Amino acid sequence: LILPRLYHERVVDHYNNPRNVGSFDKNDPAVGTGLVGAPACGDVMKLQIRIDEETGKINDACFKTFGCGSAIASSSVATEWVKGKQMEEVLDIKNTEIAKHLSLPPVKLHCSMLAEDAIKAAVKDYNSKHAKSGANTEAAT
Ligand code: FES
Ligand code: FES
Fold it and tell me: Where would I find the NIF system FeS cluster assembly NifU N-terminal domain in this sequence (predicted)?
């Protein structure tokens, strides 16, 4: 597939060979699911993380994105970046870092925003699952 040259080669690479496409069972207690949409264009991104309950580390991640090439590339990068990190660490991943990594043009910034939001939503989902089973632990956002 040929994309216009205005896209950075990393976008084309992640678009043609997206990493970690797939789904986990959203009812699995070790899984956090983030499902977010971009009002600007109607694109939807689902990003899931699997947490090692012993260490609190994200040991696996996957995504499914119904959207443009930049959104697919952003979610692919996001899944690579969250693997092996602690949940609190991934809350620091900024869409601007993803956009910079992929050299997204300004009109495509919201595509990387979708990835940042999806990461946060996945962590929130995981925390809320565990807040329910635990006492009144406040879900970290
Ligand atoms: Fe719909 Fe991005 S605007 S695919
Ligand atoms: Fe809407 Fe990329 S996510 S154009």
Answer: 7-131
